[in-house]
Write a structure and sequence with these properties.
Elements: E1 2-4, H1 12-23, E2 28-30, E3 37-39, H2 45-55, E4 64-66, H3 70-76, E5 77-78, H4 81-90, E6 95-101, E7 115-119, H5 124-133, E8 137-141, H6 153-159, E9 165-168, E10 178-181, E11 188-191
Parallel strand pairs: 1-9, 2-9, 4-7, 6-10
Antiparallel strand pairs: 2-3, 3-8, 4-8, 5-6, 6-7, 10-11
């Protein structure tokens, strides 16, 4: 089901409709500042299992998640002063930062090294969803595993039959986030994507 939402001024009643579905354990398609994403409530294991199934993705593939702001990140990741300064410079933005997980993070989204990928997208719809839910939302590209991202929300809706809702906020991007690992005291670019990397180090 497609739901058109204004990308700059998301309508509160439409956001609530999407949030209610997330709260009920559903998987939705939503826009970000890079590509369209598949998402569900970080704390609903059944929903996460379903998301893996819908995307036909192996459980070994790690999922990242969206927080509404920097202060929320510190609930789910251990962030030192240098890391915090870096995050403050680049977020909100098209980056996924890999950090050491706190005990708040469900095991299903942690790597074996107890790390997590966290996003704060520069997108009003995404941020409204996360604030409305009051919990982080899983963030993974709305494409079958290994395939290119699709920019058309109606086509994405046709591909993923198991989603409860597809938010249409216009044409999406084709380049995913830049993934940056901060866990070893260094800045390591794991994947070069939409975010520039020149100023990261």
């Amino acid at each position: 089901m497609l739901l058109s939402i204004n990308p700059e001024f998301p309508e509160p009643r439409k956001i609530k409709r999407a949030v209610d579905l997330l709260d009920a354990g559903e998987v939705i398609v939503y826009p970000t500042d890079t590509v369209y994403g598949l998402g569900c409530d970080l704390f609903n294991k059944k929903a996460i299992d379903r998301l893996y199934q819908i995307k036909q993705m192996e459980k070994e593939q790690q999922l990242s998640f969206v927080c509404p702001d920097l202060s929320d990140i510190s609930r789910y990741a251990i962030v030192d002063n240098a890391q915090y300064r870096l995050l403050r410079r680049f977020l909100p933005g098209p980056y996924t930062f890999v950090l050491e997980a706190t005990r708040e993070v469900p095991k299903i989204v942690q790597s074996k090294k107890k790390t997590v990928g966290i996003r704060v997208p520069n997108n009003e719809v995404t941020l409204a969803l996360v604030r409305g839910l009051g919990r982080p939302i899983i963030s993974t590209t709305a494409a079958m595993h290994g395939e290119e991202p699709n920019i058309d929300p109606s086509e994405i809706d046709d591909i993923f039959h198991g989603v409860a809702l597809t938010i249409d906020s216009g044409v999406g991007g084709m380049v995913p986030t830049t993934v940056v690992d901060l866990t070893n005291g260094n800045v390591v670019v794991v994947r070069e994507g939409a975010g520039p990397i020149d100023d990261l180090s």
